[in-house]
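Exercise (ungraded).
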Amino acid sequence: MADQAKNPGELVKAFQRDAQKVRAEVGKMIVGQEDILDGVLTCLVAGGHALLEGVPGLGKTMLVRSVAEALHLDFARIQFTPDLMPADILGTTVIAEDASGHKLFEFRPGPVFAHVVLADEVNRATPKTQSALLEVMQEHSVTVGKTTHKLEQPYFVLATQNPLEMEGTYPLPEAQLDRFLFKLQVEFPSHDELHAILDRTTGSEKPTLTPVLEKARILEMRAVARDVAVARHVSDYAIRILEATHPERPSAPDLVKRFVRFGASPRGAQACLLAAKIQALFDGRFAVSADDVRKVARPALRHRVILNFEGEAEGVKTDAILDRILETVRETGA
Amino acid sequence: MSLPAELSRHVRATALRIRLQRGLSAAVILALAGLGLAAFVVALLKTDALADAQAIPWLAAAAALPLLGLVVGLARPVRPLLPAKLLDRAHGLDDRVTNAASFAALPRDERTPFMDAAIDDARAHASALRPNRAMPLRVPEGVVPMLGLGIGVAVLAFVEVPRFIEERPLSGGIVPVLLHEDDLDAFDSGLRDLIDDPETPDDVRRAAREFNRLIEDLADERLDRAETLRRIAELERRLSEARPADPDLLRDSLAQLGRDLERASLADELSSALRDADAARAEAEMRRLAERLRTEQPNRAELERLRQALSRAAENRPEDRSEELRQREEEVNRLLQRQREKQQATPQERRLLQRRQRELERLRREHQEASERQRQLDRLQRELSEAAEQLNREQQDQAAQDLDQGAQDLNRMAREQMSDDEMQRMQQQLAQLRELIRQQQQQQAQNGQGQRGQGGQGQQGQSRMDRFVLRARGQGEGEGMPIARPGQGGEQGQQGGQQGQGQGQGQGQQGQQGQGQQQMLVLGGQQGGGADAILEIPGMGQQQGQGQQGTGPARQGPGAGVGHDPTMLDDPTHLGGSRQTVRVEGRQGEGPTRSEVIRSSAQRGFASRDYRDVYTDYSGHAEEVLEQDEVPPGYRSYVRRYFQLIRPRDE
C-alpha cells in the first residue's frame, strides 16, 4: 500500500510530476514515440513486460536504453540468435579459484540480471531459450542447479520481434505472448520527426541523459498505481470488452465470430485495468475512467486475440477487431 | 455518505431532463399514431361509415395517446449512472462525476482514500457543471411529420369529402325523373341546413344525408320513377321507425305539468312553455326560475304558491297507459295467432295478417317508448318534488339546484322533440316530393313527353317554370303578366291532379277570404286586378284568355272529384267546415308595410329581406292551420307546394 501518511492528492501529483520528468529526460534522446514511451513506462510501473514490434532502425533499442538511463537502472541488451542457449542469457556456473587457490563453482549471472533487459529479436532464438527468458520474466528469479537467484526489482523486460524476417524464426507461442502486459507497435516516424532525428543524431552534439528517478521511487510509484480506485461499472466495462473477444459469447461482434479463434484470457482484463490505473495517474486523477480502459485496450489485448485461419488468410489485423469491439461494447450505465 | 449535494443537484436535474426528453419523444411518436387514427376516424365520419357517437371514443383515444406517451416517457426509469455519465461527457471530466456517484453509493468501510479523493475531486468541478449542456432538450424527430399530419387532419375535418358515387350508366329504357332545378334546390337548401347545423341530433342528420343523396341522384338524372318512389318509401319507413310512435304522450304530460304550475306567478313563463309542450323553452324558463331563486328574494307568499304548484306538479301522474297498451298487444297477438292457425288464407286475409303484424310491432314500440317517456317524466317530477321540499325548508339555493337538474331533463326532452319535429318536416317534404313525381307522371301521361318542368306542357311548361324562377329571384320582366287564377282546370294539358283543387285558397294572403266563395290566388295585386305587376305561379292553375290561348283543341281534365282522396270531408267543389279568417297584423316601424312587400314581390321577386320576414310569418301560420284544422289531404299538398314555390330566394 502506498504511504498512508501522504494523502492521495500529494501522491498523485508526485506521480504525475515524476512521470513527466522521465518523459522529458527520455525526450532529449528520442524524437516522438510518446505513445511508445508511455506504454513502456506503464509496463514498468505496472510491473509487467512489453513486447515491441517494428521494423529495424526505429529506435527501439535507443528508447529502452534511454529509459533505463533516466531511471538509473541497469540495462542489458540480449541479441537473440538461433544458436543462443539458455545459459547464455541466464548465466552459468563456472569453476573459479578463490583467493587461497581453492577451486570452487561460481555462478556467473547472465545478461538477464539487469533491471531493464532488452531481448532483441526474441523470435530468432529457439523455443528453449525463449522459455528460459519467459520463465525469468514470470518468476523474477533464476534457478541454476539447486540455487535460486532472485532478480532485483524493478525488473522489466522488453522483447522485440522483427516483423520482416519471419522465415526460419520461432514466433513466440500464444501462451507465451500472454505474459507480456503490452504489445507496442512502433510506427515509422513522421516527416518532421525524421528531421529532428537527423538533427540530433548526425550532429556533433550528442545529448546525454541524467537519471531523474531512482529505483526505489519506481517501486513507490507501483504501489501508488495499485491504490488507484476502480468503480464497479468501469471494471464491468473492461470485463465486457474482454468477453467480446471470445467468438462464442453473444456479445461478440460479427467480426470476432468470423475471424477469431481464441479470445483474450483473464490476464488481458488484469492488464487492461492495471494499465488504466496508471493512465488515470498520468492524468492526475484518482479513479479509472472508461476512456482509460479504452486507451489501453489495444496494447493490452492485441497480442492476446488469436486469429483463425480465415482471419490470417484475409490478413485481418487484431487492431481492427479490437476497434470494432470498442465500437459495439457500450459503457456500463450509459 | 451520499453524493455531495453540489453534485447530486446537477445529477438530479440531468435525470429530469432525460425523462423530459424521453417524454417528448414518446409523446410525438404516439401523437403521430393518434393523428393517424384521428385521420382514419374523420374519413369514416365524412363518408358516413361511422356515426358521431361512435367516433367520439376513438377521437378521445387519439387525443389521449400523446398524453400517454408523455407520461410513459416521464415515468420510465433512468439508469442510475446515466445522468452522471452525460455530465462527464459534456464537460470532459473523464468519469469524475460517474466515479464519484459510484463510490458514494458504497458503505463507508468499503471506501478507500483514493475513492474519497475521487469524490472530492468531482465535487471540486461541481460549480462548472451545467445539466442543460449534458442533456440539451432537442426537438423530437417526428415533430415536422406530426405537424403536417395535424394540418392534414384539420383540413380533412373541415373539407367536405366528395362522395364517389358509382357511375351507373343509364340503361336503355330508363326514363329518369326530371325535376326543375328550383324544386330540387327547395329540398336541398332545407337539408343542407340540417346537415351543417352542429346541434342537429345524429339520427336526424343521418336521415337528412340520406334524403340529400336522393336529391343529388335526382339532380343527376340517375333515377327513374320506380326507383325514386322506392327510395322515398324506404326513407319514410325509416323516419317512421325513428319517430316516437306516440308523440302525444310527451306533449300531454308536459301540458299537464304546465297546468299544475299555472297558479304560481313565479313560474308563469315556465307554465306557459310547458302548456305549449315546448321543451326547449321550458328548459330555459326553468333555469331562469332557478336563477331567480338564487339571486332574488321573492316574498313568502310567492314562494309558498310556487311550492304548492311544484308539489301539485310532482304528485300528478300522467295516465299510465302501459296496461292499456299491454291489453291491446295481447288482443292483437290473439288475432294474429288465430289467423296463423288457418290453413288456407285468402289474399285479403294475408293482407290483414300483415297489417296486424305491423300494428303489433307499432304497439310494442309504443309500449317501449311510453315506458321510457314515463321514466323521463318521473325523473322530472322527482326534481320538482325535491325542489318543493327544499322550498318548504326555506332552502332556496337547494331548490334552485333541483330546478337546474329538472332543466337538464327538459333539455333531453327538447332534443328529442327537435329531432321529432325535424323528422316530421322531412316526412312532409318526402310526401311533397312524391306528389311532385305523381303530378309529373300524370302530365307525361297526358302529353306523352318527359320534359323537365312542372305545371306546364312540354316546352311551354318548361319555359313558364323558368320564367317564374327568374322572376322569383328578382330577375326578368315583371309587367303585364296575368293574374294566376287557381283551380280552373284551365289550359290545355293541365294536370289532372290540379283540377278541382286549390279553389278559394288564400288564407293569410292579403285581401279577404270569402266564405264559400271562389277566391283568386293573388299575389301582389288586389282582388279583381289592378295596376300592380303580378306574378304567374306555375302549376297553381293557369288562366285562360289574355293571350294564353292554347294551340290545339282544348282538352279537359278528368273532371272534378275524380282521383280525389276518399277521405275528403265534403263535396270536392266546396270547402267544408267553418273557416276562420286569419289576418296577420303588421307592426309599426320603418320600412315598407306588409302589403307593400307582398305587392312588390310580384315585380321584384322573392329575394329581399323584408319578403323573407313576411314569408316566415305567413308560412308559419299556414303550417299551424294545416296541423290543427281539418284540411283535406289534397289541399295540404297544394298549400305546401304553393309556399314552396313562393319561398324566399337568395339575393
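Further reading is listed at the end of the chapter. For now, observe: Residues 8-27 of chain A form the longest helix (20 residues). The longest strand of chain A covers residues 91-97.
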